[in-house]
Amino acid sequence: MTQEELFKKLVAHCKEYGFIFPSSEIYDGLSAVYDYGQQGVELKNNIKRYWWESMTRLHDNIVGIDSAIFMHPKIWEASGHVGAFNDPLIDNRDSKKRYRADVLIEDFIAKQEEKIAKEVEKAKKRFGDAFDEAKFLETNARVADYRAKRDMAHDRMVDALNRNDLEELRQIILDCEIVCPISGTRNWTEVRQFNLMFETKMGSVSEGANTIYLRPETAQGIFVNFLNVQKTGRMKIPFGIAQIGKAFRNEIVARQFIFRMREFEQMEMQFFVRPGEELEWFKKWKETRMKWHRALGFGDEHYRFHDHEKLAHYANAATDVEYEFPFGFKEVEGIHSRTDFDLGNHQKFSGKKIQYFDTETGESYVPYVIETSIGVDRMVLQVLSASYEEQQLENGETRVVMHFPPALAPVKAAVLPLVKKDGLPEVAREILHQLKFDFNVQYDEKDSIGKRYRRQDAIGTPFCITVDHQTLEDRTVTVRYRDSMEQKRVAISELSSMIGAEVGFRKLFDQLIG
Ligand code: ATP
Q1: Relative to the CA of 401, which of 86, 307, 319, 375 has its CA 20 to 30 Å away?
Q2: Cα dihedral sign for 284, 80, 98, 198?
């Protein structure tokens, strides 16, 4: 199965088992907007909890807030979003499709890399054990050609983006002979800038409408509350403010399911530090955040950093945490050293002093900021892609199993009476009531036990608890483990502590502080 097929199957699985539905489906959907179903919302809430508690509980100098989506429109002037939150767009005149110019060039660069990898594969087969990959990469003429194209496109693009040179972006597309994936032609328009913020009106129009924006990031809600939190919480630098909330971007290239949406959720933390100490903190936060990702146990080799060469207008260092999705390594989280840009600009635009008096140094200053910013939905997609497996069983059957880390699994345990009679459902319901105050548990008595196990595997339930006739005699049940499919006899009285030890966040948190 190719990675593309695998991804298609995952998307279908998400719909079939109530994780994610296209928005407004009965009206043919709304592009790049999705709804979470009964399993999806549980998974998403668990991811948010993992992030929120690792920030606010494991750090005694980080607190949370929840700011409004609507904010004073001047905020977006101060933050630079009105002037500079743009994507360079280009249209193909034949297909009438619109693309992000930089994404077209990035796809071209990725294609050159794929071609190099293919040459290596071919040569490996041809030369067998005698193959020297390093030498081959150095000397093969075709590889040299692909590399030259890749580097040319990359260097010119970085330079054009840094200089905001739209004509040059178009020229690179022409020089690389990039065609529209739909029409196959090179009939391109000029490149134009397009602002990503959604606008709406506040108040009734007759009263004099006021244009406001749906926030494109949650961070500004933290910056404008910096003094409120610092003063009321008597916070001492270094300290952080965390927030989870919706953000909206009028994305043009919306694709890859919930990877890029127009309405999505972010988990952002702004960490305020002394000027001059920001790069040291940037390094620390890179390590801390990578640990958080890796603790989930999906394999360290699937994560990497991608340090930015083109820095946003507010940053003096930036990196992405990338995960290897079925469609390649892609950003899940951004970590940015935002300098004093935001607080400094809010001070300027609002006319209010936003400074911190440092009792240790006796100085007042505008703090510098390290930001960690992760998309909840992108993280959901990461966990879904990492967890999905189609397994061939020894008896010839297949099963789809979601290997969610137990702490993130939507349902923690399913209670299943072996048959629908002989008093077994009553005992199963008794167990359900015993567990449901602590865990999200399900009761299922329909179909054969095998089918019920498959249904729980498909939603990633770590434990299936089967009540059988022996239960009536000795108050024990069979516990079946999702990943190994092993079964164990356990006393009903031990279920709660056994499940609790596995599905709690403690196991993850231990890795973060260890
Ligand atoms: P990209 O380069 O993918 O557009 P970005 O660099 O603009 O992302 P940031 O502004 O740094 O993204 O946002 C931080 C995080 O928010 C990203 O790492 C991503 O997880 C998430 N995110 C950003 N845009 C979207 C979107 N349209 N849909 C879903 N998640 C998003």
Answers
A1: 375
A2: positive
DSSP string, 327-388: TEEEEEEEEEEEETHHHHHHHHHH-----EEETTTTEEEPPEEEEEEEEHHHHHHHHHHHHE
For the Cβ of 100 lying below 6 angstroms from any atom of ligand 1, the answer is no
> CA 318 to CA 144: how far, in whole Å?
30
Q: What is the helix (H) or strand (E) element at residue 325, kind and residue range? A: strand 317-325
Does the beta carbon of 319 sit less than 6 angstroms from any atom of ligand 1?
Answer: no
E strand map for 183-316: 188-195, 199-202, 210-213, 239-248, 263-273, 303-307
Sign of CA dihedral 343, 348, 353, 358: positive
CA 272/CA 151 separation, integer angstroms: 37
481 with 453: CB under 8 angstroms?
A: no
Q: Which residue has the tokens 């990492």?
A: 386
DSSP string, 213-247: EB-S-SHHHHHTTHHHHHHHTT--SSEEEEEEEEE
* Nearest one of 82, 97, 87 to 169, comparing CA atoms: 87
| Any ligand 1 atom below 6 A from CB of 371 | no
Position 361 scores a pLDDT of 92
pLDDT in tens, 315-342: 899 999 999 999 889 999 999 999 999 9
pLDDT in tens, 176-187: 999 999 999 999
Q: For residue 206, name the pLDDT band (cuts at 50, 70, 90).
A: low
The amino acid occupying position 69 is I
Rg (CA), the chain: 26
Q: Which of 68-72, 199-203, 428-432 shows the lowest mean pLDDT across its residues? A: 199-203
Specify whether the CB–CB gap between 212 and 201 falls below 8 A. Answer: yes
Ligand 1 close to Cβ of residue 375 (< 6 A): yes
Map residue 452 onto helix, strand or coil: helix
Q: Which residues contact 410 (CB under 8 A, 6 or more apart)?
A: 38, 39, 40, 42, 43, 46, 404, 440, 459, 460, 461
Q: How far is the CA of 369 from the centre of ligand 1 (A)?
A: 19
CA of 375 to the centre of ligand 1 (A): 6
Is 406 close to ligand 1, i.e. is its CB under 6 Å away? no
Provide the token pair at 377. 């939905």
Report which ligand 1 atom has the smallest distance to the Cα of 261: 28
- Contacts of residue 293, Cβ cutoff 8 Å, sequence gap at least 6: 303, 321, 323, 332, 333
- Integer angstrom CA distances of residue 359 from 139, 208, 365: 61, 47, 11
Which two tokens mark 464? 């299936």
